[in-house]
Amino acid sequence: MDLKIGKLKNCQICNHHKLTKIISLGKITPCDSLIEKKRLNFKQKKYPLNLFKCQKCGLIQIDYVVDPKELFHINYPYRSGITKDLKNNLEKISSHVSKNIKFHKKKFVIDIGSNDGSILKGFKKMGYNVLGIEPTNISKIANKDGINTIQSFFSHNLSKKIKKKYGKASIITASNVFAHVNKLSDFLKGIHHLLDDDGVFVSESHYLGSIIEKFQFDSIYHEHLKYYSVKPLLELFSKHNFVFEKVEKIPNYGGSIRVYARKINHKYFTGSSVKKLLNDEIKKGYYDNKTYFNFAKKIEKFKKEFQNIIFKLKKQKKSIIGIGCPGRAMTLLEYCKLDNNKIDYIAEQKESLKIGLFTPGTKIPVKNEKLAFDSPPDYAVMLSWHYAKSIIKNLKKKNFKSKIIIPLPYIKLLK
Length: 415
Ligand SMILES: [Zn+2]
Prior knowledge:
Bound molecules: zinc ion
CATH superfamily of the largest domain: Vaccinia Virus protein VP39
Helix content: 25-40%
Low-confidence stretches: none
Number of domains: 2
Largest sheet: 7 strands, mixed
Strand order of the largest sheet: 8-7-6-9-10-13-12
């Protein structure tokens, strides 16, 4: 289960060899490798992005591991704290966990992949001692904000050092991190080592169900090695002596699941919410091949329709920009072959670390959104469509003039 860099031949969780191909999205550039202007003419590395299904445990996964050091490079430009909906959801984890889960009085929480410390800020307000683990330079922002953060990837080895210095944690959280980890065995060993016997490990992962139901194929990218549903998750955790006390669906990133895992001992058992969701998944066909063959057909059909619309507008000399520059937009743009000849620029909030850079592969400049208000383009494609509702509300408030195209889950034009 500790994956090597490069092409995979076996299932990432159960190691079974029978993987069925769902779709190939072509060769795609890693989505957070934005380019500085002076490097625009350098060739960027692209890697195959293919989706597979394991015929044994049902895990939906990609078959290529890009070196994490390349994906989560120190200048990684993503900050969770600047997306308002997400920030609120992350801060709420603290109150939610302490309301729902019983554990003893020691208040020490560790967040893995803590980014700018959004989750830990919630816990800190509640009187917890907090520690973040974050491999990128975003950790410096967290430390500046008073959230004690170690700049590193998490590993079993690091867990030993942390335990020595700080002791065991009563809560460990990992939000939108788990699907990114290529050394899962080592990672879960580290969690088990560092977690108090009465403690809880709370992990949040983008949910396979919401990818299918809400047609979020753009969330397939190299950072996400797998797309979680309950069955393979249970298989993975039980191998590492964890049991699921509870699972719940949450709105983050357009639909995620939150799992409350406990160490297997006499006190904790698989909760009813876990069995219920598993039954639900089986009924909805999440373990049937047919579901994914239909999903693939839908993706190919979308590509044709979306290209037709953009190409036609471009022929009419319309100006088109993108709104929001999430990682997932890179899959959408590169798969649909929409580069800087089609999209003039992408507008981002002024706090974004991506402003001034160019999108990987498609080389579209990222600019301060102010420009889109000062000189409105004819059309704006909502690339952060999973937050469309709140973004459009904001744009309207600020009297945004351009026509808006929402690409997914189906193409919609707002006038
Ligand atoms: Zn498998």
